[in-house]
Amino acid sequence: MTDTATLDIQPGRLFIGGEWQDAASGSTFDTINPATAEPLTQVAEAGAEDVDRAVRAAREAFESDAWQNLDARKRGKLLYAIADRLEERADELAALETMDNGKPVREARMIDIKESIDCFRYYAGWADKIAGDVIPVPGPYLNYTRREPVGVCGAIIPWNYPLQMAAWKVAPAIACGNTVVLKPAEQTPLTALELARAASDAGLPAGVLNVIPGFGESAGGALVNHPDVDKIAFTGSTAIGKLIQRQAADSLKKVSLELGGKSPNIVLDDADIEAAVRGASMAIFYNSGQACTAGSRLLVHEKIRDEFVEKLLKRAAGFVPGDPMNPKTRLGPLVSEEQLDRVLGYIEKGKQEGAELLLGGDRVEVGGKRGYFLNPTVFGNVTPRMTIACEEIFGPVLAVQTFSDMDEAIQIGNASEYGLAAAVWTRDVRKAHHVAHKLRAGTVWINTYHNLDTASPFGGYKQSGYGRELGRYALDLYTQVKSVWVNLA
Ligand code: NAI
Ligand code: MG
How far is the CA of 186 from the centre of ligand 2 (A)? Predict the structure, then answer.
């Protein structure tokens, strides 16, 4: 079982104005290893007073001559240096992410940590390429635009990709010249604190990045309601996204939201079945289904349904829950007891509403500990109105539905309040693009699933949120445009 002795995990403190600090209240909370249900360490718990201190540090840093006058290229150099510091410790960070979150260590290393490093390098490159325009206006005037930073950005992130979600927000924010107060999820605060350490080691000026672990309402809420925060970037549940948008209305701070999903994965009858089976299992079981883009609704053409499901169940049974620190493990525990209970509740609901449980559905013990492990779960005979076909489960639970033609597949696929991602499997290039264009989702995969890259935009349609992270699109989230007029007469 996970050997916590291999890593020397120190108690976590708040990182404010370049210094490690205790919470004003002195409160701490435990962060738990989901593979063992045992605490890893204690972390300082930020409250409203700490949030205020962090915001003031970020404001002071933002307005300082040192930051305002720093060449854009030097901001880029700082981001490259942060990437280098993360890379030097990549294996250790992967182990830490696995202990705090429960995800398989191989995936933590090859995806979470690698993508986080890539993200800092990608936006390091952008720092000195964020340019305005010269606009041909009538009369003897020169008109040009500047892309200026928004100011103090509050970042509130979830627990499913802890370091990566931090990178997606912090790297573009700093590239654009903002300062940041980052609140990691209470379940997984540890790698965000290591990001603070990397930033400090890289020479990022004090106050440019502040990291304040804490809970949703007390710390996150204080950040959202703080009058001196200019922008909130949030990833998490749709319910909290709506609350944040409502609360931000009072100060009209800018908001970008990356929320839930119930992504349809559509297999047409001419698909390469072997490839689609592999894709469909990875789509739902990767990260134990705790991905906002999880392919949680599998829509299979009725003609190939039986063959497909038979192969899928064989493949799914290969995702055996195991110690996430073992590099061979592909399915780790869920992040918390709360999440496990929520997912088990959905499984119960699926049975009650008449779906057919084809595989799994039960909690399992791994290594003799009370970790939050769940067997890979597949439901058949799911109809579009069932709860498990509509609500985001965020666990390794797949709902299989059928359709009889392509238009019906599109219709079922779009019959969701969410619109984060979708996929289609077919050998027909015309059908592939037709379906891709008709699906109302921010990402569509054709004959593949879960691809993601720092250079390519990511975000939702409908109630999956708005604003696009990653790529050059993220620069729009972290800049505002100023139009400057010069009289040349
Ligand atoms: P959540 O939305 O409550 O938490 C996400 C982040 O928001 C955390 O940092 C949390 O501390 C913060 N937060 C919570 N309440 C807040 C408030 N009132 N003001 C400001 N910040 C607040 O999500 P939770 O409870 O961890 O998970 C519940 C469900 O949400 C999951 O089962 C899943 O369906 C969905 N979810 C979706 C994610 C995504 O990537 N789209 C990520 C995490 C959860
Ligand atoms: Mg919550």
Answer: 9
Catalytic residue among 119, 292, 392, 469: 292
Tell me, using a 6 A CB cutoff, whether residue 216 lines ligand 1.
yes
Nearest residue (by CA) to ligand 1, atom 9, is: 185
183 CA closest ligand 1 atom index: 9
**Closest C-alpha to ligand 1, atom 12:** 216
All domains of the chain in start order, with CATH: 4-259+464-484 (3.40.605.10), 264-454 (3.40.309.10)
In tens, the pLDDT along 87-106 reads: 999 999 999 999 999 999 99
What residue's CA is closest to ligand 1, atom 32? 394
pTM check: above 0.90 = yes
Q: What is the DSSP string of 369-426?
A: EEEEEE--EEEES--TTSHHHHS---SSEEEEEEESSHHHHHHHHH-SSEESEEEEE-
410, amino acid identity: I
3-state secondary structure 132-190: CCEECCCCCEEEEEEEEECCEEEEECCCCCHHHHHHHHHHHHHHCCCEEEEECCCCCCH
**Residues 198-233 pLDDT 10s:** 999 999 999 999 999 999 999 999 999 999 999 999
H or E element in which residue 278 lies: helix 273-285
Exactly one of 45, 194, 258, 469 is catalytic; which is it?
258
